[in-house]
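YM 10:42: EamA family transporter RarD sequence, as discussed on the call
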Amino acid sequence: MQQSEHQVGVLAATFAYLIWGILPLYWKLLEPVSPGEVLAHRIVWSLVFMILILTVRKQLRSSWREFIYIFTHFRSAVAIILASCFITLNWFVFIWAVNSDRVVEASLGYYINPLINVLLAMLFLKERFTRWQGISIGLAFIGVAVMTIFYGVVPWAALILAVSFGLYGLIKKMVNTGAMIGLTIETLLMTPFALLFLLWLSKQAAYSPSFGSLQTETTWLLMGAGAVTAIPLLLFAIGAKRISLSLIGFLQYIGPTIMLFIGIFLYKEPFSQIQLIAFLFIWVGLFIFTTSKTTAFKKMTSKLCKTNTKHEPKAS
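YM 10:58: structure's back
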């Protein structure tokens, strides 16, 4: 029974990261629509989809009780509002990056994210990182610095994606809401602003409506934004409950790797030697960061330390 539960967890988490990895293909189909309009529809239809899911699962009443509980406690109310803002920023920048031919830079952001998480945990949760985690963060910093120095431009999109998602995860850890209920509340908070933006947009003289226009494909894609947002999150929640955090740590690199390949090979985005060097620093950092938690890595480093101690010259 435990084995089958573990397999379900692995499959669910893998499919979640696969969907996140190919999401650029979906947003690219909506390239003629402005990122702000796509974001507004993503928020609205995510809420609609989540309400349908909660209705089918008969969890609407419990979700409402949790909503009341959160907003009768000041700290949790502020936290969930901030979480909503950070995930909205993350969604917008990702959509903008994809439709601005910056899929490679978007992938960089999600490669950096695990290391940003460690940094945020140290700053806000007073966690101490190990020497190897410190080396990992240092290597990632060198990678970003290499790109900045040689191109003269800071990869802002990648950094905003990494930091916004890191802060979102940090706040979610502090609030401790379920994945489904959390997403429902976050989209509920942002939906009034999304609807006001769409209403304002419709009043602009130069505006040509994308939703409900003669292009039915675009309308369906905008409505589908809710499903493609919620489904991987739900799959991830199923997987995270059934498999170890270390395995999640390995699987999470599926998404940015797929994005990187899509950016280079499908959309023919430039990937120079300098970018490769920068990515290599980050990849090595990530490899050390991920494997440093494993028993095999700890055994190997302890053996190396013992070997070095044996070869040290004895004091006369």
